[in-house]
Every structure is written in structure tokens, then in C-alpha cells.
Amino acid sequence: MKTRIINARILTMEEGSEIFEGEIRIDGSRITYVGAPAETDEVFDSVIDAKRNLVLPGFKNAHTHSAMTFLRSSADDLPLLQWLNEQVFPFEAKLTADDIYSLSKLAILEYVTSGITSVMEMYMQPEAIAQAFDEMGMRVVQVGAANNFSQSTELVEHWYKTLNGKSELTGFRIGFHAEYTCSEDFIERIADIAERNRQPVFTHISEGQPEVDECIGRYGMTPVAFLAKKGVFRYGGAGYHLVHTTPEDIEILKENRIAVVTNSGSNMKLASGIAPIEDYLRAGIPVAIGTDGPASNNCLDIFREMFLTTGMAKLRAGSAAAVPAREVLKMVTCNAAKIMTIPDADVLAPGKLADLVMIDLNQPNMQPINKIDCNLVYSGSKQNVMMTMVHGRILYDQFDGRQNYHFDREPEEIYEVCQKIRDRILG
Amino acid sequence: MKTRIINARILTMEEGSEIFEGEIRIDGSRITYVGAPAETDEVFDSVIDAKRNLVLPGFKNAHTHSAMTFLRSSADDLPLLQWLNEQVFPFEAKLTADDIYSLSKLAILEYVTSGITSVMEMYMQPEAIAQAFDEMGMRVVQVGAANNFSQSTELVEHWYKTLNGKSELTGFRIGFHAEYTCSEDFIERIADIAERNRQPVFTHISEGQPEVDECIGRYGMTPVAFLAKKGVFRYGGAGYHLVHTTPEDIEILKENRIAVVTNSGSNMKLASGIAPIEDYLRAGIPVAIGTDGPASNNCLDIFREMFLTTGMAKLRAGSAAAVPAREVLKMVTCNAAKIMTIPDADVLAPGKLADLVMIDLNQPNMQPINKIDCNLVYSGSKQNVMMTMVHGRILYDQFDGRQNYHFDREPEEIYEVCQKIRDRILG
Known about the structure:
Chain A contains 14 helices and 17 strands. Chain A is an alpha/beta fold. The radius of gyration of chain A is 21 Å and the shape is globular. Chain A starts with a strand and ends with a helix. The model of chain A has no long low-confidence stretch (mean pLDDT 97). At the A-B interface, helix 2, helix 9, helix 11, helix 13 and helix 14 of A face helix 2, helix 9, helix 12, helix 14 and helix 15 of B.
């Protein structure tokens, strides 16, 4: 399948790149040309006229729990611990692998509507999840969610060894749930697995202040300091949330090449706090953005996350100049690709993966045309997503003004199955 | 024109109301029936099958500067004063009445896409603005923006006397820009006008801490205390922003029946701070929500504002339980209608204005169906707006999956005119 996208405004997201008008050519899953319009003898299966709309790398959602769709809006406005213990854990215990497969598909429908082309996923039943993403043509990198109560370090290593290389779209990396759900011994075993396989590690870190205080009570140090001391990040990795960190933590993150995945909507809705994003950027720590799961957010909308990430940073700094728009776009494209270990999904360039989005500029919220990159971050919405392409395949478009999903099942079929799951579990 | 909406999930927003399944009948600009499905001999010009989607009162945007669309995303990530003095005031000075007329129309296109059915507007050239809204069939209540440098108290009273009663869709109320742009003498004259006409007054109050500190320096009291002491709010009114207030201020707001219009997105993007919304609600002060103008927000999306209003309150309180979803829905419907002096646009009931929205629940972000009102606030987006009706007329719909605007001019014509205005003024 060869595709040519002509008449596009293009933002490659390469270092220092500016928007220019040109074309993009795709052969199979890879980009073959990005540049000025040019004559070619090549024959294309499909030519898409972008009509001067914007094309840029697809948005990456660097932390989510997709299958939690079944809990969306079932229990909001509750304090964090009450919510987790009464409204999340008891219901999650009732999920089957089949449920997780279907609930993940519902999340994928939502991802493509906001231009998300890949996600970093942490949940249970990773085989079922890999199958759901692979069937829908969506890129996913899963990480282990192991902890004292669910999964095991052996399973994490098993999945690492068996779930990679099965499909070009799905991968699996070493991960565990969090310091506060894992014993010291458990964490040492994770560090051993990472060492043995020379792999980065991914985990929740320092989402709430109580979690940090408890860790200090247990080990006399913060979660960041403790996990680094245990050798978990000998090959780097990333921490999800990292809301409550000290200047010393930030030094440790930098020294250990631990990236930050911020989850602004979830941190806001659960009142976890505002992460020190500006401090991370100043320290040269790479930052990406995740929606977190739909039970805590409650939507899977990268546009809302982009606005919140800069907005919350501005509030924390007391300065409208904090974390400008272009920094946010880096977070959801090139930074995220590196952090999520899919480096070929970072920018638009020959040889890179054809994971990209087209943004409709002919909508009231994008008019008049001023600075397009700022407009995308401060005013963009799902309604501006004209096309979501993953691995060279269009999964979603609004070319004719309608929402067209290109999957083997209609959205309504997936809604119906998920409603039944919700009704069975929540009653 | 008689319209019947059948097969709807209905949320009337009357005190204590729950969602039920039924129908709504409309005759001209008014609702004639809301309730269970029932036989009728009435003949309707139009019957709309809501297909079990949600119908509720239209969203009200209680503070905006519509025509600032021309500055959207032209200068972001700048400190507030630098932004105002270098990037806003010099360009606003170049606007003609014709410009403001067209730029307001661009904003109206955007309002209807997020289900906004009326706005409280503060800008220059109110005759031109009234004409734009009237022509497009959109409801507006304008307020004076008078200050030492623009407009005058005489003009405000003149507009109050001449701009009301011209159209059922447009009104004008007493207002002035802010304490910090008006002399003491000016503010006294505003108070006199309000007294003479027995009218509430609307103005920006305590948006930033420097503004509060300067007022204390000038008069030895906060803006809230000073304006109340001057008798500005003898007939009530509302303050826009009210981010930086003391417990004493909150007492004064309550005693003087001064409502609060919060502008979460703008306060976040300009790093103004987080308003104490929970404190206002606890004191029984009515709260509504405004987008503020598109130069500071940058979009005019009531869904984003709803999420931010509760989210920022949760962050400020350090509690996920702060300002629950239903409170937010009240703010953008019944509370706003009262504050904006259009009391008949508050709820769905016989005799009330037919200003309403239909929300598409068959989208991934609204599935599965759990608590629909929570879903609307925490997960809703413009893409869920299936219909926006003002004064009994459908201004926008997505019944066939496409965005259908029902105005006498195509969006593209409005975009083109506004782009020319932007290019002329910003170069």
C-alpha cells in the first residue's frame, strides 16, 4: 500500500522544524518522502489531498489503563483512597481476559478520535490486550503491572520474553505497579530482571504525598531515591505521575536517565497535585504525557491533556510563560516516542514509521490562522482530527465530515459488549 | 414553528431533577411540554427522534469577549502585563465596528459547536455586536466595558436605554471594565446609573493579586470591599474572575448579592491563580462559568471550562470530592441564566425559553453508560453536541454525522473575512 498526502501543511517535529507546505509519501508502514511538492513517477494506491490542513506525527499517550473504560464515570467526586478501595479494586477483580480485550477496544476507538497513534499500557491480561490492539491496527507498548497482589516478577519476565516480536504493533517492557504495592524483595527481583535483560523499567512513582511520606517512613528515603538505589533504573525507564518530588529527586531522575510521564487530567481530578514540569524540563529530563485510565480522568483525550499540562505548569510557576506550546507538542510526539521505546515513531522523516495525524484547520476554534502550533495546544479538540494513521493504515478519518472508523467491527458492536460487561460487574 | 423531540433522555436541571426518558414540545421560542411520552393531537412542523440521547438546557457562557477571535493564538506564553500592553491593546485600537461584527460571528460559530446557547458579552461597539448575534439567532446579554480610556458612563447608560427591547435575543446591562481601569469618580457615576435604573452591575474583579494589592494601596481596601462601599452593587450583579478574595470579601459578596463568574481556562493559561469556588458555594453565592475571550483561553469550549472548574477546585481543596459534577452543570445552566438576567433560560419546563442542547451518547468517550451527568462534565466534548437550539431554532446539528450550521452565511465566508481582518491588523 503506497499513499501520497499532498497539499499539506507539515510539522515534522524534528529539532527546530517549522511548518511548511509540501507532501508526504508512504510505502507500507514507513514514510519514504517528506518535503516540498515534487514530480514523481511512483504509482500510489491512494492520494489524499490535505487541503492545506496540518499533518504532524501522531500523538502518543505514554501512560494509560485502557480497559478501565468500564469504570468511567461510575464513581466520581470521591477521595482517592475511598475511590480505589471501594470503587475500583473490588470491580477490577471481576474482570476476565475477554472483558479486558473488549474494554481495551472501546478505549482504542476513543484514542483514534483524538489523534492518538500509540499508547503505553499498564494493566492485567497482557495477551488479551496485545490481541485487541493488534486486531485494531493500533500500536501499543505494554509494561508489567506486577505487585504483591497481582501478577509476579516471573510473569513479567515471561511476558517480556514472549510478547515481543509477535507483531510489529505490540511490545512489552519490564514494569511493576509502584513502590507502595511491592515489597523490597519484589523490587529487587524487578531490578534483577532489568539487569539481566538490559531493559528500562516503568512504574508509578510519587503520585500523591501520602505515598511519598509512607516510603520515607519505610525506608528513610523518597520513592525516587529508593527505587534508584535498588538499581531498578540501571537501564533507564520512566516514572508515571512524579507529582511530589524534591530537588534531590530531580537530580536522581537526571542521573539515572529516568523520564517523566505526566498525567495532568488524572492528577487534577483526583486532587493529587501539580507536577513540577518546568523543573524537569530545566533539568533536561524528557517529559511525555499520558491520559491515565478512563476511571480517573475520565476521557482519553490528548488535547485536554496538552492544555492541562502547560496550564497546570503555568499555575504552579505563577507565570504564563511556563512550558510553551512547542514544548508540549514535543512531549506528545518525539519525546514520547523515545520514552515509550518506539524511537521510529518520533518525527516525520524518510524511514520513520507512518504514524501521523491530520488536523482540520477549517473549524471555528482554529480560525483565523495565526500560530498554528499554539492553536493546536491551546485551542485544538478532537473535532479537529481529520485523520489518524497508524503503521501506514488510516484507522479513523473525517474526510467527508463524518466520523469514519476503519475497523472490522462497528463502534456500536463494541459499545454493546462493553455495556454488558459494565452491567454485569457494576449491576 | 412547532417542534417535538421524542425518545429523549431528559435532564431538566430543576432542583433535585434526575434524568428520565420522555419528550419535549416547543411552540415558537417557548417550551410547551416536558415529560413522559404522551399522545397528542397537536400538529408539529418538525419531529426529532433523539434516539435516547440526552437533552438538557443549553450551556450559558457567562463571560466572554467574542470579537477577540482575531488575536487567538497570536501571542501565547507571555506574562500577563506584557501580553496586554504589547499584544492586545495596540491591536484592539485598530478594530472597526465592522471588524467587531464579523469577529463576533466567528465566535458564535464556535459557541454553537460546544452547545452554548447564550453568552454574556463585554466588548466595544455593542450595536455591531447586537446586530451580529441577532442576525445569527444567538442570545446575548451585553454589559458595558467602560473605563477611563474607552467608552464612558454616559454611553453605558445610553446603550442601556437603547439596546434593550430591540430584539428578543439581545439585551444590555450596566457594566464597566474594572476598578483598576476606572477612577473613583467614574465608579461613583456607574453606581449612580445603577441606582437610577435599579439595575445590577457587572465588572471584572480581583483577577490577579497585583490588581488587589494596588487597590489596597489606593483605597486601603480590596476591590470587592471598595466597589461594594461605593454602592455599585445596590441591585446586585456579578464579578468576573474573583480569583483572589479574602474571607471578608466572600462575606461582602454574599451580603451584596454579587454572583461569581469564574473563568478557569483563562485563569490557568494566564497563570492568574485558582478561584476559591468551593468557598463561594459553601457561602451560598451563585457561581456561573465563562470562557473569557479567545485571546486568553484560547478556545470557546464550555466542556473544557466545566472540567477545569471542578478540577481546579479539587486541586485547590486537595480533595477529589470538591465541587461535584452536578454543581458544575448547575453553573452552566440554571445559575448562569439567573446571573445573566435571562431567568427564563434556566431549566426545561413549560413556559421556559427553548434554549437547549442534545448530547450524543453514542461516542466512545461517553461509553459505557454509567452516570450520564458525570460523564458530561468529566468526559464530554464538542463532538458530543448533536444539536444546539436557541429560541426554538436549531442553529447547529450533527444529526447526519456532519457538522451542519444553520446560518445565512457559510462558515468559510466568515473565516475568510476574519482572516483578512487579522492579516490587516497583525500583519
